[in-house]
Structures are given as C-alpha cells and as structure tokens.
Write a structure and sequence with these properties.
Blueprint (H helix, E strand, L loop, with lengths): L6 E6 L10 H9 L5 E8 L8 E8 L3 E2 L2 E2 L6 E2 L6 E7 L2 E6 L5 E5 L5 E4 L4 E6 L5 E8 L4 E2 L1 H6 L3 E6 L2 E6 L3
Antiparallel strand pairs: 1-2, 2-3, 3-12, 4-5, 6-13, 7-10, 7-12, 8-9, 8-11, 14-15
The chain binds 5-phospho-D-arabinohydroxamic acid (PAN) and zinc ion.
5-phospho-D-arabinohydroxamic acid binds next to strand 3, strand 11 and strand 12.
Length: 173
C-alpha cells in the first residue's frame, strides 16, 4: 500500500446500493449481515489550486453482483476543463468514459497501461479479473467530484461476465 497518503476511503457495498443493476441481490446480501468492501482509495490530496496535482491509488477488489463486475462509483469533475490520467498498477480492468450525452467508450486498464480521461467525461473503473485491480490516478487538485448525475442516472452501459466472456451491455435500468 502507498505509505504517503493523507486520506483513506473505504467504499462498501452499501455505499453502492443504488448503482448496481441487481438491487434485489444487493439488499439480499446486506440483509444477510454482510457488507463487503468493494474498493479502497488512498489519496494524496493537495489543497485545491490551479496547476497543482492530487493523486490517489485505488484498490478495487474482484467480484460481481449477479453478473455485473465490481466498479468504482464514477463521477464527472465539477470544474471544467479538468482531465485526469489513470495508470494500471495491478490486475485486469476497464475504464468506462461517458460524455454528457451518455455516449460510452471503454478503454482497457490492465497492469502497465495508461489511460487518459478527457475533460467533461464521467469515468468509472471496472475490475474484470480474479485479482485486485490497482490503479494510480493523477488529477488537478481543484477538479472536484460530481457524483450526483451518475448516482441518479448511472452509466448507459454496464460491464458483465457471462459464460466466461466480458461484455459491455445496455444498462437495463
Ligand atoms: C479517482 C477516483 C477513485 C475512486 O481518484 O476518485 O478511483 O472512484 P470514485 O471517486 O468514482 O468513487 C479519480 O477519478 N479522481 O478524480
Ligand atoms: Zn476523477
């Protein structure tokens, strides 16, 4: 784990209850007394200031709810234009990018790969492997995070594993 973070976040299934497609399965797991950790974020946050970067290492655990792979919440940046870079450090993953018209693109984000997130794109990482997916993100310290739109509308596509294959399919919600 990174040693020099100044803030650690732990995101559990209950924090994502509105985001997974199979809400019935989420509620079943939670009502059985389980609330697994889906991901952890180790932030090296800097005070918001133009031209200054913050960074964060995210550890996204492997797993699925139904056939939907574990993912990060996903967000737009509040301030425009603010892009970001994700660098894969471990595991196998995808990065979903969604524009303001809900058009989706996907990039692979495996160990050793670098993905650029243009300004004005919502972004979500998805672990499609059997092991932890770890990535480093570097973003302007004044970018800000807007989770509201994604919490309300979700991404237009979801990433599922069916019959051993990874597929991007329309979000049934
Ligand atoms: C990342 C993300 C991190 C967790 O540092 O904040 O991977 O994902 P959510 O913020 O969507 O829960 C980033 O994109 N920062 O801007
Ligand atoms: Zn971001």
């Amino acid at each position: 784990m990174p040693r020099r973070y100044n803030k650690k976040l732990q995101i559990k299934l209950s924090d994502l209850r509105k985001l997974f497609c199979r809400r019935d399965l989420v509620e079943e797991i939670l009502s059985g007394g389980k609330d697994p950790v889906i991901y952890e974020v180790y932030q090296i946050s800097q005070p918001p200031s133009e031209g200054v970067f913050s960074a964060a290492t995210t550890v996204l655990y492997p797993g699925k709810i139904g056939d939907e792979y574990y993912f990060t919440k996903g967000h737009f940046h509040l301030k425009e234009p603010r892009g970001e870079v994700y660098i894969g450090l471990a595991g196998r993953g995808l990065l979903l990018l969604q524009d303001r018209n809900r058009k989706i693109d996907k990039l692979s984000l495996n160990k050793g790969e670098v993905a650029f997130i243009p300004p004005n794109y919502a972004h979500r990482a998805v672990n499609i492997g059997d092991e932890k997916m770890v990535f480093l993100s570097i973003y302007p310290s004044d970018a800000g995070h807007d989770y509201e739109i994604i919490e309300r509308e979700g991404f237009s596509k979801i990433v599922v594993g069916r019959k051993g294959k990874v597929a991007l399919v329309d979000n049934p919600k």
